[in-house]
């Protein structure tokens, strides 16, 4: 069975590969389907979908959102997002605006540490949703750090000296918006919840009640034991399963499309099950 990849980033957010090139790489890697899940934008979808028709790869529209569940922050993927979204498009545009405010706050903090970085220098490196990886790249280009990793460890990561938190959408609202677009809300990379066993089950059962429909059980950073636990949980809670690499091109070295760090495989068969689950709530006539 061919493999697929349902979690990737392009230059429309913080990946380094254009949507067209990413789809070409997916074809070259023998993947039959790829989802483009850029942070806070669907602007890469039209180009990716056109490339999908050219290269014979099914392109699934997607997006990745940072959301808040009380004090907890997590990532949601939306899969089967339409190429041209409705009300959701305006919500994403506002999220990208808030990114600018946060990015400028980070630059203020960097300035306070004696690192002068003009926001224009960051924007030069971005083509869509702008975020910390672009600031990291600007710091690297300036010679303020030697690697992207160092930029996150010293300055931009959660414990970093210039860190500023992102404004997150309440999870329930994000789930509702995705479903209103006919998209499947997916709990992304569940290892980041740092829960297992009964407490994981309680948490994810609550998310299912909220409208989350699938778990990204197969992911580049999951151990075999974690993958097994997430697959079993999806089965127990009657939720769908997705999987992806979180490919970012050179922005995440070591992660290959469809293969993650080498041990990832996402079977094509997952897509049919996801489509069936979507039939259950998608109003007739929707894309
Ligand atoms: P932002 O959306 O602006 O908060 O940036 C988050 C993105 O930064 C993630 O999706 C990753 O691509 C990247 N990132 C987060 N932490 C690190 C890290 N420690 N090293 C490299 N990249 C990171
Ligand atoms: Zn990213
Ligand atoms: Fe994520
Ligand atoms: Fe991601």
How do the strands and helices of this protein lay out in sequence?
Elements: E1 4-5, H1 19-28, E2 33-36, H2 45-55, E3 58-69, E4 72-79, H3 87-112, H4 119-123, H5 132-142, H6 148-156, E5 169-170, H7 171-180, E6 184-187, H8 197-210, E7 214-219, H9 224-236, E8 240-244, H10 270-279
Parallel strand pairs: 1-2, 2-3, 3-5, 6-7, 7-8
Antiparallel strand pairs: 3-4, 4-6
Helix pairs in contact: 1-2, 5-6
Structure description:
The structure is a single chain. This protein has helices at 19-28, 45-55, 87-112, 119-123, 132-142, 148-156, 171-180, 197-210, 224-236, 270-279; strands at residues 4-5, 33-36, 58-69, 72-79, 169-170, 184-187, 214-219, 240-244. The chain is an alpha/beta fold and 287 residues long. The protein folds into two domains: 4-85 and 171-279, TIM Barrel, CATH 3.20.20; 92-156, Orthogonal Bundle (DNA polymerase, domain 1), CATH 1.10.150. Strands 1, 2, 3, 4, 5, 6, 7 and 8 form an eight-stranded mixed beta sheet that branches. Helix 1 runs parallel beside helix 2 (45-55) and helix 5 (132-142) crosses helix 6. It is globular. Bound molecules: adenosine monophosphate, zinc ion and fe (iii) ion (2 copies). Residues 7, 9, 64, 246 line the site of one fe (iii) ion.
Give me some keywords for this one.
globular, binds zinc ion, eight-stranded mixed sheet, TIM Barrel, binds adenosine monophosphate, alpha/beta, binds fe (iii) ion, 10 helices, single chain, 2 domains, 287 residues, DNA polymerase, domain 1
